[in-house]
Write a structure and sequence with these properties.
2 strands; single chain; alpha+beta; DpnD/PcfM-like C-terminal domain-containing protein; 65 residues; DpnD/PcfM_C
Length: 65
């Protein structure tokens, strides 16, 4: 038998419209609003869940100890 460490990653996504003079400025404005918690993603923004085994460890049985 083995033990497995499984990583779960949930992806949330939201689109925000913002006025700006450049792409960089638009991104910075949204980052700042997100940082200040003016934009909060929740279960309504759910997109996907991914499961990935990142570590496998063999469990020794009683006779092998």
């Amino acid at each position: 038998m083995k033990k497995y460490l499984v990583e779960i990653t949930e992806t949330l996504q939201k689109q925000i419209t913002v006025s700006a003079n450049s792409r960089e400025e638009a991104e910075q404005k949204v980052k700042e609003r997100y940082k200040n918690e003016d934009i909060i993603l929740n279960e309504n923004d759910y997109v996907d869940t991914d499961f990935h085994v990142i570590k496998e460890t063999r469990i020794m049985n009683h006779d092998e100890r």
